[in-house]
Amino acid sequence: MRYILLILMLCFAAACSTPANLPLATDNSGIDDEKRLWQRSEDEQKVLTQSGLIYRDDQLDDYLNQVARKLQPPEILEHIPFRIMVIKSPYLNAFAFPNGVIYIHTGILARMDNEAQLAALLGHEMTHCTHRHALKTLTHFKSKSDFLAGVRGSLIQFSGIGKVVNQLGSLGSKAAVSGYRRDLETEADLVGLQLMAKAGYDPNEALRLFEYLKRELEEANTQEPFFFGCHPRLQERVENCKNFLKTRYQKEETGIKNKGVFLTKLHKVILDNAWLDLKAGRFHSAQRGAEKYLKIEPNDAGVYYLLGEVFRQRAKADDTHKAKAYYKKAISLDPFYPDPHKAIGLIYYKDGEKTLAKKSFGQCLSLSPHRADKAYIVGYLKKCNQ
Amino acid sequence: MKKFFLIFLLFLPACAPWIKTGGSYESLPHNFYVNIPQGWMMLDTDRYLLISGDGPFLQYVLIQDRPIEMPFRNTKKKFNRLMLPQEAADVIIDEITSDQSVLNFEIIENVPARVNGHDGFRVVFTYKNRDGLKLKTIYHGFLAGESFYNIRYTAVNRYYFEKDIEAFRKVLESFRLIEDEKNCPGIRVSQTMKAN
Q1: How far apart are CA A272 and CA A290, in angstroms?
Q2: Contact flag B98-A315 (C-beta cutoff 8 Å)
Q3: pLDDT (tens digit, 9 = 90+) per residue, B7-47?
Q4: Is A288 part of the contact surface with chain B (CB cutoff 8 Å)?
Q5: B82 in contact with chain A, both atoms CB, cutoff 8 A
Q6: Residue B50 lies inside a defined structural domain of this protein
Q7: Chain A residue closest to B91 (CA)?
Q8: For residue A46, which residues of chain B lie inside 8 Å, CB to CB?
Q9: A282-330 pLDDT tens trace
């Protein structure tokens, strides 16, 4: 009996000394739960990779991964092969799987202004991996029967990301996507800020980014999947950042920002995300994204066409005039670009200006005779001739 | 045994609205007539009419009259009465592509198409569901009055889609708006089975 008790005590002692509560420092791949989590993560990543949701841009991926590598010492990078990937989604979100694969939505990337803000986000997400937050969540919930109910609740709350999670359908890494519990998020905030500061970035930029995102969400008054976890936690996260800056980082703004490099690498994401915002009917966000892109590429016909589409599709009073002006600007910058010809043709067609409509549709078809919507345009032309 | 009985009771109400049917069907609340293939199952809810020959997980035809003011789930765009069929098709495509549970979405065709004399569109697309199953949909839609009507056929891309495409064509051809029938009563189909 004494031996059994001794063995039991040793077992408990071993269980208590699992390095799950410690930042990653050694190779702990022998831990079953962690192995399982990593395996699950890999399975889910395979699904995501084949989902058509991944934003493919090798140069962007290289850049994001370079920034990520600046934030961690080599011994950590040896244990966790961090990889940053981008998801085509206009939502303001990012999540990390326990095996170091971090997904950032185009929505949050497009709202950033510089590399320091990217570093803030990456530092936060990387901390979830290095500090084993998924494993801690799993062990925390393992014995609780309300785990699934809790997860389901959070999925409903963050409907957009819930769909991704549902589609991924795994247990252990769900928290990685839908947000961790409060103390773990706070830890990720603080360690993330330390990481960015240590790498020479200006942590004040983290606060700027968080406050901007908070403002945008409040303006839109939406409940959407969000990097902050959920709306009531917004202020809490901003406060964490403020406290860090006040107590642990009392320097002048001398840290790295790298705005120029960042915007050069990210400008295409800004435009593509504005299109995603438009698809989602978030006209204001799409307009803001397009205007941000315009500051980087002021002579891009594509962005004027996008602005025209924002106003034509929103269709509020006076929007058609604005749309027409943007289409005309797009055409003046690139007369061989067929889409604004078709779009302005639609406005003329609906206004009953058949001659102008006919001319615009004709120009569109001559520039792009095999376009996917040819049958519609041919139909409009027929009606213009009636 | 008690457990089985309870499970049976739980399933019972879920199964109840499905009716084995066939022939002409008049859905008064939805304002349309349609001819349902013989032996198919039917579910007429307050939001849509769903019919299926092999079960909705394999193939189904869904017919819906959607108030044009009704918001979508994934896009904030809305229909308006002045929209052209192409613009309405774009709203539907944006609604589908903004849904992150729809994977590998691919448009095969997007063309103007008339349904029962109404100018509308036909979009054919494929996508994968969360289980990785490839599905194919033919989506017809048009705006009439205060509603957006849509008739869509979705089936597992492999085998099932081709198998029932002819049945869907017949359903589509049989589709009539009750409002139109009032103006032109001769069109009305026989053997009408009234719903609700």
Answers
A1: 9
A2: no
A3: 544 454 455 477 878 889 988 888 899 999 999 999 988 88
A4: no
A5: yes
A6: yes
A7: A279
A8: none
A9: 999 999 999 999 999 999 999 999 999 999 999 999 999 999 999 999 9
Helix (H) or strand (E) holding B144: strand B134-144
- Looking at CA atoms only, how far is residue B141 from chain A in angstroms? 14
A chain contacts of residue B104, beta-carbon cutoff 8 Å: 50-52
CB of B104 less than 8 A from some CB of A = yes
Query: What's phi and psi for B45, nearest 5 deg?
Result: -105, 180
Burial-class residue B39 by CB neighbours within 10 Å (0-12, 13-18, 19+).
exposed
Q: What angle do helix axes A283-296 and A259-279 make, rounded to 10 degrees?
A: 150
CATH code, domain carrying B148: 3.40.1000.10
- Determine how β-strand B41-44 pairs with β-strand B19-20: antiparallel
Q: Are A338 and A354 in contact (CB under 8 A)?
A: no
Token pair in block for residue B58: 């394999």
The domain segmentation of chain A, as residue ranges, is 32-247, 259-385
Q: Would you state the torsion angle of the CA atoms of residues A173, A176, A179, A183, taken in this order, to the nearest 10 degrees?
A: 100
Nearest CA in chain A to B121: A376
- Closest approach of chain B CAs to the CA of A47, in angstroms? 8
- Encoded amino acid at B170, one letter: K
Maximum distance among all Cα pairs of chain A, rounded to whole angstroms = 100
Buried b (16+ CB within 10 A) or exposed e, A144-183: eeebeeebeebbebbebbbbbbebbebebbbbbbbbbeee
Per the structure, the complete domain to which residue B70 belongs is given by: 20-194
Residue in chain A lying closest to B133 (CA): A51
CA angle A44, A46, A52 (to 5 degrees): 105
CA dihedral in degrees (A194, A196, A202, A206; nearest 10)?
A: -90
**Lowest-pLDDT range, A162-171, A228-237, A347-356, B82-91?**
A162-171
Say if CB A322 and CB A312 are below 8 A apart: no
Q: Which helix (H) or strand (E) holds A386?
A: none
**Torsion sign over Cα B57, A163, B100, A135:** negative
- The complex's ipTM works out to 0.85
Q: Chain A residue closest to B101 (CA)?
A: A163
Residues of B in contact with A350 (CB under 8 A): 82, 84
Determine whether the interchain pair A280/B98 forms a contact, defined as Cβ–Cβ distance below 8 Å: yes
**Residue type for B1, please?**
M
User: Per this entry, what is the length of chain B?
Assistant: 196
- Looking at the structure of chain B, the number of domains it has is 1
Out of 1.10.260.40, 3.40.50.300, 3.30.499.10, 1.25.40.10, the CATH code matching A259-385 is 1.25.40.10
- Contact (CB, 8 A) for B170 and B34: no
* Identity of residue A144: K
Residue type, A116: A
In this structure, which amino acid lies at residue A253?
Answer: E
Q: Is A163 on the interface with B (CB under 8 A)?
A: yes
Residues of A in contact with B97 (CB under 8 A): 279
